[in-house]
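User: Predict the complex.
Assistant: Input components as received:
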Amino acid sequence: MTEPIDSHQIKANMKKAYDEISPFYLKWTESSHATRLSYVDIMLKSINTQTGTHQKSILELGCGAGVPVTQLLASQEHTSVTANDISETQIALAKERLPASVDLIQGDMMNLGFGHQQFDAVLGMYSISHIPRDEQTVLLTRIFDWLKPGGQLLANFPETNFEGSTNESWLGATNGAVYWSSWGREKLVQVLRDIGFDIKIDEVVVDSEETDGVSRDVPFHWILAKK
Ligand SMILES: C[S@@+](CC[C@H](N)C(=O)[O-])C[C@H]1O[C@@H](n2cnc3c(N)ncnc32)[C@H](O)[C@@H]1O
């Protein structure tokens, strides 16, 4: 029998783990910064084509230390940025690295509430897969509501389908645990289409991750979708 998912415990453990590993995570992840930036660049160009010099609002979920993505968003003209993370350490690191104009919100992304059609874009880099996948569907539906017509979602997810995987010592964590869950590429595309998104990019990029001295290829599914 499958254990019921304790979302509250998953979030509490996640916060503890990231509060401990955030400085290490920031260094560890440098090799995949270029991939993030290339997708954000595509999204920003597309939004700028649509909105010109009108003021834009962008939301980032699970922003980590704000490097490199929130920094790039914050450097754009006519753009206000809201960034969220569950970890107090990540938010503290982000505060040191971002201009004061970025609105940083600490807490579970599932507890965020925004207005209908508030954002031109919503991003989730390596972050939405940290919540149970049923919650991911609820969140993606909320994001659709928060986006303006023509607004864009840029996010990545593990390519494979699994209901939940927990690691109590990921990147050397001694506290809490890190959790991932994923619908898998095919089902996620269906979920997004059912919500009403028009999928513009649906592709896989393989990251090379090194943990405990062992390097492995991890395929991530990148989505750029339009309301
Ligand atoms: C793998 S890191 C990605 C950080 C950054 N987006 C990047 O691309 O490097 C995942 C981030 O999501 C945050 N996170 C995990 N669960 C969350 C939740 N329920 N709500 C908000 N943030 C969460 C973690 O604290 C962590 O900073």
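DSSP finds six helices and nine strands in the chain.
Let me know if you want any component modeled separately.
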